[in-house]
Design brief:
By secondary structure, the protein is mainly alpha-helical. The chain has a domain of 70 residues. Helices cover 43% and strands 6% of the residues. Strands 1-2 form a two-stranded antiparallel ribbon. α3 crosses α5. The chain is elongated.
């Protein structure tokens, strides 16, 4: 179980019950996403087209539907250059790779990426 057991509330309460020393609180995961300025447009594009995925029969994302995404980009005033589109596709492939990681069971289909200014 590795890290999962080390972060278990049940394990911590069992240790406390038997008099184990109190462990320091683990810092909460960082939720901010830092984007380099040269990648900002691609990150905005993937976020604004987040509802435009094509799904397989099991509800798992297989690719971004570029025709529908282009409509979302138009409404968001996002004009991708060929270089920005390459970056967008890299993000798309990265998201799909995260969804399909063989070493982790996905609790539910989908990946949500939120960008705040």
């Amino acid at each position: 179980m590795g890290d999962l057991a080390a972060q278990s509330n049940v394990l911590s309460s069992d240790e406390a019950h038997f008099g184990a020393p109190v462990k320091a609180q683990i810092a909460q995961a960082q939720t901010d996403l830092h984007v380099l300025p040269c990648n900002w447009l691609a990150a905005q594009a993937i976020t604004s087209a987040g509802t435009q995925w094509q799904y397989d029969n099991h509800g798992i994302e297989i690719a971004l539907d570029y025709q529908r995404a282009d409509i979302a980009w138009g409404y968001s005033n996002i004009n991708l250059t060929p270089k920005d589109f390459d970056k967008l596709q890299l993000l798309e492939r990265s998201i799909l790779a995260m969804i399909r990681r063989p070493d982790e069971q996905q609790p539910e289909p989908g990946v949500t990426l939120t960008i705040r200014r």
